[in-house]
Design a protein that fits this description.
This protein has helices at 11-20, 47-62, 96-106, 173-179, 181-195; strands at 2-6, 26-30, 66-75, 116-126, 132-143, 159-161, 166-167. The protein is 30% helix and 24% strand. It is an alpha/beta fold and 200 residues long. Helix 4 (173-179) packs across helix 5. A 7-stranded mixed β-sheet has the order 2-1-3-4-5-6-7.
Length: 200
């Protein structure tokens, strides 16, 4: 089985990737599993640039099939913030709860209809022959008024989807994967890999 290196140290993200790619002939492993512990500086100006920076850093060391994603939350009332800074929104080392609390503070007294937001996930893939591509998945919703749900991670407890009547943290994993930004991007990635005839 071919190794498929995910350039992430985020355990929640790695679990989602493993679950969504479970039917494919790949062994999904993290960059830490292949001995890469360094933090990769993400100095791009878009999700796609940051994803490719991470993928290339790991590919240059391993030469194997690598995928990296950069994802985040865009809130319309905040002009797209936190965007590419979603992970560092509340400062280095801040917990998910810290980030959620900061977001709620910034949206205090903002009415529901102005709390529209979207999760964005860009995935970059580099194949052993150096071929590379990016895909982007988007999930639309609103920012709720308090955290709800125990599933997921990051901003999931605040990301409310009216058509489902719940946050993405209240969804079962299978349901979330079906509609999430990362789920959509990963399925697009799979289709592109099929185009390259890397999988059946």
């Amino acid at each position: 089985m071919k190794r498929f290196i995910a350039a992430t140290k985020n355990k929640g993200k790695l679990k989602e990737i493993e679950e969504i790619l479970s039917d494919l002939p790949f062994e999904v492993i993290s960059m830490e599993t292949v001995g890469i512990q360094d933090d990769i500086e993400e100095n791009g100006s878009t999700f796609e640039e940051n994803a490719m920076i991470k993928a290339k850093a790991v590919f240059d060391i391993t030469g194997e099939t690598v995928m990296a994603d950069d994802s985040g939350l865009e809130v319309d009332f905040l002009n797209g913030a936190p965007g590419i800074y979603s992970a560092r929104f509340a400062g280095e080392g801040a917990s998910d709860q810290d980030k959620n609390n900061k977001l709620l503070d910034m949206l205090r007294d903002v009415p529901f209809e102005k709390r529209s937001a979207r999760f964005v996930c860009a995935i970059a893939v580099i194949l052993p022959d150096g071929t590379s591509f990016t895909v982007r998945g988007i999930c639309e919703g609103y920012i709720g008024y308090k955290p709800e749900g125990k599933n997921g991670f990051g901003y999931d407890p605040l990301f409310y989807m009216p058509e489902y009547g719940m946050t993405t943290a209240q969804m079962e994993p299978e349901e979330k994967h079906r509609i999430s930004h990362r789920g959509k991007a990963l399925r697009m990635m799979v289709e592109r890999l099929k185009e390259f005839q890397r999988i059946d």
